[in-house]
Amino acid sequence: MHLTAENLAARRGEDLIFVNISFHLAAGEALVLTGRNGSGKSTLLRVIAGLLKPEKGTVIFRDGEGWKDRHPGEASHYLGHRNAMKNELTVAENLEFWRAFLGHPGTAGLPLEEAAEAVGLSGITHLPFGYLSAGQQRRIAFAKLLVAHRPVWILDEPTAALDASADRLLAELIAAHLAQGGIVLAATHQPLGLENVQQMKMTGFAGVDHGVWG
Ligand SMILES: Nc1ncnc2c1ncn2[C@@H]1O[C@H](COP(=O)(O)OP(=O)(O)OP(=O)(O)O)[C@@H](O)[C@H]1O
């Protein structure tokens, strides 16, 4: 899998948030976005995930085999600021929903209990999601990435609300995903403890001097 962004620009409301963003990630590579609040990290992630239309530029997810272009939803997981889980459903019901909804176009994901165990929360999958603490909820949101396989993980502040042990656990899961040829694009204010990652500092309006077509 290859992920290529070419000359991207995006607008929110009236304002251009960024222009001329390009990068290329091959299997096993990661890019970490940094920058102050409001600098456009979430906007860029949403553009890459196909949830927001760019003002200009292209995003290409391309399979290594056959060089076939893939739809972002088929090639990537998107973990946003919100956890995308229903409070009234149990943890197992939430994860089962995501597994069925996402399906598995290629490699199958982990069974639910194994995914919960991988984020350090086995034995609580019978509880309503809403009963969990903020950190436990974030861990389960991350387990969604494990129940259905996607080669590209797009992560917006994945470690928000997590304690130090969960920080390490998620960093290990991200490192394992990269080691298996996955691609990771993450926005974060905290270091994820990953080695050999590319970094891009978003500058927000300050970087937009020449207009979108400049
Ligand atoms: N729907 C919207 N309409 C208008 N402006 C928006 C909208 N969503 C975001 N913005 C603006 O776009 C800019 C970039 O926001 P974005 O959420 O991408 O920043 P960020 O770098 O992810 O910030 P943070 O670190 O706080 O998560 C901000 O100035 C924000 O106010």
From TrEMBL:
<keyword id="KW-0547">Nucleotide-binding</keyword>
<comment type="similarity">
    <text>Belongs to the ABC transporter superfamily.</text>
</comment>
<feature type="domain" description="ABC transporter">
    <location>
        <begin position="3"/>
        <end position="210"/>
    </location>
</feature>
<dbReference type="InterPro" id="IPR027417">
    <property type="entry name" value="P-loop_NTPase"/>
</dbReference>
<keyword id="KW-0472">Membrane</keyword>
<keyword id="KW-0201">Cytochrome c-type biogenesis</keyword>
<keyword id="KW-0813">Transport</keyword>
<dbReference type="GO" id="GO:0022857">
    <property type="term" value="F:transmembrane transporter activity"/>
</dbReference>
<dbReference type="Pfam" id="PF00005">
    <property type="entry name" value="ABC_tran"/>
</dbReference>
<dbReference type="InterPro" id="IPR005895">
    <property type="entry name" value="ABC_transptr_haem_export_CcmA"/>
</dbReference>
<dbReference type="InterPro" id="IPR017871">
    <property type="entry name" value="ABC_transporter-like_CS"/>
</dbReference>
<keyword id="KW-1278">Translocase</keyword>
<dbReference type="InterPro" id="IPR003593">
    <property type="entry name" value="AAA+_ATPase"/>
</dbReference>
<keyword id="KW-0067">ATP-binding</keyword>
<dbReference type="InterPro" id="IPR003439">
    <property type="entry name" value="ABC_transporter-like_ATP-bd"/>
</dbReference>
<dbReference type="GO" id="GO:0017004">
    <property type="term" value="P:cytochrome complex assembly"/>
</dbReference>
<protein>
    <submittedName>
        <fullName>Heme exporter protein A</fullName>
    </submittedName>
</protein>
<dbReference type="GO" id="GO:0005524">
    <property type="term" value="F:ATP binding"/>
</dbReference>
<dbReference type="GO" id="GO:0016887">
    <property type="term" value="F:ATP hydrolysis activity"/>
</dbReference>
